[in-house]
Give the backbone structure.
Amino acid sequence: MTKDEFRVLTAIEIGMRNHELVPMPLIERISHLKRVCASKVVKLLLKNKFIAHENKKFDGYKLTYLGYDYLALQVFMRRGAIKEVLGKIGCGKESDIYKCVNQNGDFVILKFTRLGRTSFRTIKKNRDYIQHRTSYSWLYLSRLSAIKEYTFMDLLHKNNFPTPIPIEQNRHGIVMSLINGVPMQNISEIDNPKYVFDQCFDLLKRLAENGLIHSDFNEFNLMIEDNGKVIMIDFPQMVSTKHKNAQFYFDRDVECIHVFFERRFNYQITDTLDFNKIARLNDLDVQVKASGFVKKEIKNIDDFDIDLRGSDDDDDDDDDNDEHQDNSDDENELDRNIEQEDSDNEIEDSKKIIQNLNILNDGEIS
Ligand code: ADP
Ligand code: MG
């Protein structure tokens, strides 16, 4: 991609903060490119499907997920987290997973969140919420989801929970280490079901003791390595044990594991977990929230949880002021944006804050 193409793509990303569709004159203004040049570049980006054009009510352009992927990928490549994308290995409801190689030649996993792809239910249920959040909002919410996933993965990993190693986050993407194993869903027989089951139960218990519930703890999000070790993945939907429906999510996680082990491995389970006995408040979830940076982000993602799950434990008065800035800000933003990418910013800040909390000083959690 040429420098001009990159400028135009970034200009459209910036313009989308305030506009559902970014009109051509604004693209020219933000990218500081002359009309002829800008429109030539726009045509090329359109042809490559990095952007889409609409001219029903308004005439303008918007980023596609492909364009958004490109911007994130570009950052990952500059930082050496990704050198080459080998191929897609998974396509979830709301994410795509790619196997990649980093600059040291190691395999890594790239996960792009793609909210909005299948969430029609969400739109219907929450018209008001979605109304003032447009195409940009899917990109924005996907980004929040990736930030949330990365933040939890980082925190869990640092506290000796078995997760992939978080490597980088940008926009709607995260890069993490590759787990050499298979999702439990793909396994039809195991030598020692008790060994695997006990790890799952222990994880649910340790999470809850630390104030956290995975809330999608099932055979698709638990991977088993060759040696039988269980690794948890997929954290955007984690909630605190103080969530209004905490017990429901916890019991559902426990039930999923019960049912799976009984049906798949014919393993009869007698143990159970009592939420009220286990859940201790005030630990990891508070440390994540306490870290100023994530406060607003977590609040927003909690709002989004409301959409996905139809619960309503939180007030919804937190305006996205940054989505309604004055347009004139945009025009100087391109250079700032491009500069900022190098010292990026969001996750670095949260990492520092979390480190400062000295959570590791407590040693083992269990
Ligand atoms: P989704 O949110 O779409 O469910 P997941 O994070 O659960 O996405 O990942 C989907 C699939 O991709 C997993 O079931 C697993 O097969 C694969 N996968 C995800 N992360 C990794 C990883 N770090 N290492 C190896 N495979 C992974
Ligand atoms: Mg999953």
About this structure: The CA atoms of residues 95 and 217 lie 17 Å apart. The domain at 70-178+328-362 is CATH 3.30.200.20 (Phosphorylase Kinase; domain 1).
